[in-house]
Structures are given as C-alpha cells and as structure tokens.
User: Fold this.
Amino acid sequence: MKSTTILLSCLLITSSIAMNMDMDMDMSSAETNHDSIEPSHTHNHYSDDKSNKTDTSNQLEPTPHVMKHQHGLPILQTHLLPEERLFWENYNTTTYFNIKTNHRPSLYLHIIFGLISIFILYPLTLIFNNLNLSKTYLVSLIIHTSCLIFSIFNYSIFINSIPDLYPGNAYNKMIIIVFISTILQLILAFIKNLETNTNSNSTIHSSNRYFNLSTSTSSSDDESSSIDSTPTNYEKVFNKEESKLSKLQNKMKLNKLREWISNTKVFYAIKIAFNLLNWGHFFYFFVLVPTGVATFCLYGKEQTVFNLLAHFIKGGVFFAYGVLSLARYSGAFSQKGWSWNHKFITNDSQMNYWEKFQNKGLWTMEMIESSLILFYGSTNIFLEHLSNAGEEWSPKDLQHVSIAFIFIGCGLCGVITELKLQDWRFEQAKSNYQKFITTTEEDHPQHHQVEIIKASPGFSPNPFPILTIYWTGILMSKHQQASELSTEIHVQWGNLFIMGCCFRFLTYILMLLIKKNSTTELIKPNRPITELIVSFCLLCGGIIFMESTDPIILSFEYYGLTSMFTLNVTLGFITLFMSYMMSLFVFKDWLKNKSSTTEVV
Assistant:
C-alpha cells in the first residue's frame, strides 16, 4: 500500500510539472506571435500588465452587441487583399459635383430647371394639347421652352469652366439636339394652331347673324325715332355698329386665311412633324435624364460603357413598361381598348388608317408587348458581345445570349397566340355586348340594327409576355456577381419582376371572372386593383436594374452604401413618382369634365 501511494504521488507531481511547462511554452509562443500579427480595428488587444488592463477597462463602453461584420463600412476600412487595396486606393472619385470650379451653381441651376421643365411643365403641355386647349397649350409650351433654354444656358457656362472629364460623352450632343428641336417645336406649334376649329367657325357665323340682326334692328329703331334723336347720338350708334362690322369682317378674313393655310399640303406636313416632336420629346427625355446621371457621375467610361448601356437600356425598358401600365390603369389609351376596356367598331363608323389594318379582334396590348419582346430579343443577340468584340464568346456572353433566346421564343409565341385568339376576342366582346342589347331592345330599338364588324374585350389571355418577365426575374435573382452587394441588388429587382408577373396573372383572372352591368361599363376604362402592384413592381424593378450596373456598384461599395439603402431610396422615389403621375391623370380628367360641362351649359 505504501509503495502504491508513493507511486501515485510521483505521477501527480510529474504531470503537474509537465502541464506547467506546456503553459509556459504556450505563453512564450503567444508573446512571440503577438508581435508578428498586424493589428486590426476589429480585435481587442490585452496585455499582461495589470496597469494596462485597468486603463483599457476604464476606456471601454458597455455595449450589448458589437457589430462583428464589415457590412456597411467604406471599403477601405475593411479587410482587403493587397491587390484589392491597390485598386480601391487608386479609385477615382472625381465627378461633376466635386470638380473645382467657380460656376458650380450653374450646374445646380441646370439640373433644377431641367427637371422642372421635363417632369412638371412638359407633361402639362401634353395634357393641354390632348384636350385641344390651344391657348393654354401655347402659353405652357412657351414657359417650358424658356425654362429648358435657361437650363441649357447654365450648363454651357458650367461645362466651359471645367476640364473635359468625360471625353466623347453623349450628353453634350443630346443637349444640343434638345435645344434645336425644342425651338422648332415651339415654331411648329404656333403654325399648327392656325388651323381653324369648327366650333369657332359656328360661333363666328352665329355672331355674324346676331350683328346683322342687331344692326338692322337698331337702324329701324333709329329711323322711327329720328325726330326725337339728335344727330350726335345717331353718329355714335352708327360708328359703334360700323366698328363691330369691321372687326367681324377682319376676323372673317383672318379665318379664311387660316382655313386656306390649313388645307395646304405644307400644313399637313407641319402637323406630322409637330406630332412627331410632341411625343418624340417625351420619349427623348426618358433617355436624356439617365444619360445626364451617368455623365455627371462619370459612370461608364472606357470599357465599362457596355455594361452601363446594357443595364440602363434594359432597366429603362422595364421602367417605361411600368409607366405604360400605370397610365393604362389611370385611363390612358381607352379609345384603343388598351385600358382594360371593350372596343367596338360598327359598320356605320368611319375607321381610321390604324383600324383598317387591324385584325377582326383588334390589336391588344398583349400584341404590342409580344412584338416588342420579339424585336428586343432579336437585337440583344448582337449587343451582348460588344464588350468582348473580336474575341471568342465567353460563357458569360453565352449566358446572356440565352436570355435573348428566351425573349425571341416567347415573343414569337406571343405574336402567334394573339393571331390565334383574334376570333375568341371578337366573339367574347360581341357576346358581352349582346347581353345588354337584348334586355334593352324595347327601349332602344336602334341598337338592334347596329352591326359590329370588329371588337375586343380589352385584353387577351396570352401568357407569354408574363412568362418572359417571370423567367427574366428568376434568372437574374440567381445571377451570381463578383461582389456580394451586386448579387443582392440583382436579387432585389429579380424578385420584383416575379411579384409583378404574379399580380398580372391575377389581373387576367379578374378580367375573366368579373361581369359588367351595362354597356357603359364595358366601354369605360377598367381599373383592376392588381395593376397598381404590377406598375409598382415594374417601375421599382426597372430603377434597381439600372442601379445594378458595375460602375454604380463600385461607387456604392467605395462609400459603404448597402443594398438596403438603395432599396429604401428607390422605393420612396417610386411611390412619389407614382403619386405624381396619377395626379396628372386626375388633373386631366378634371379639365375634361370641366370643359364638357361648359359646353353643355
């Protein structure tokens, strides 16, 4: 027993000595390695010195959770590889907004007055022109032109005060085109408004008869009371009536001159040129604004221009698609049956040039969408290889071209489907119309004699436009990028497109299920609640699509802007944009109702 106890005691003493030796070796190696490790701002360093521990603990602030990830920090404050740090330390942050100049206020005046002219004044001019309010239209167009010219003048002052930061940029050339075409539009607008109005002609003729009647009456009265009247009073009355007649004759001569001008071939060409400029500027501004953003921020220089163009063009297309969807909800294009409403053409109605070449079921918005998808996919095959032109097709090029194949296939299938559904659309719209005609035949027997030769229910159950956008969203949400931020932003707009397609599908379900109560409801613009969500998803997804280009992502990463920052800002902007756009349509409807009420009175 004693020998066993002595043996155990020796083993315990030996093990304790070994453990102490290991701890000393670990401490010495840790102290040696501590000097070779580079300090980091995310690590806490401790010292064996008790005084240092006391000082450090006094400087600490109690915090429940300390951020241990680097998300949201400017990229130079994060852990970088040597080659990454070399890139970001040489990253050029120069823009039009921070270049040294004595005329920076001119840049801000250019931006402010340009945006006011494009987003506020010009939409109002389109409304006034659409409602044939010629005088109001001309006044608003003069204000818009003056504002835009003032904006361009300030840009010329600023751009001549700085070095050429962006050689060969498109914005400078586009500004010159806007300057010339805006002045030309104003001139054509004055000439176009020389056209006589039938309402004004009837008013002039009726006033002419009134003046003749009043003249004869007043002259007979003057003759009957010539004994009691003094020569002075008679001269006053005669001169007054003579001035009225001379004014009327001058107005009639001017009206004949205007009528002669409006019947010439030159005037007809001027009207066509005016209409092209009127709506051409609207679409041109859609290109001008993002081009200005890219130029002022120096995005897309050298080879990155192809990536910038790809995202700006595609994102701009979806943004414009969202504008179109919201306009349809607000009642635009109802005369063509594109506002989810029925469209009828009878045998006694005069068909215009557009309607003569439409099929029996009339062209729907789904036909327009499918045609544009087919055209876009066909052109996109060649555009995807521009950044690698002259070289072999890379897997990335082939991946993007495969998306173009989806657009071509779905677009062609959509066009064929529309041709197959033309008879269905005609019969569907005609049967909906006949339901109400049979019930009101006794009260309105003239309806029974109307023969419908072309008709459309306002939509076509065509899945291919939805399918195209749906798979675009799916593929882009799975599209892995070089940086985590770029991948997250691609997921955002990909998911938005997916959600928009789901709500568009619900719109078709509602159109098939909801029944109308009268022929008036068939013709009036329909407003499916789901289309508001569709418009929001397309608008927001289009803007985020544009933000996902490499030059913008690099600037976001440099300043530490996260994907949630871009999403929040974009959502806020889109909701304000939608509210403003819907307010414009409310204003248009108010003016339309007011003018119709005035005519009735």
Remarks:
- Residues 95-297 form one domain.
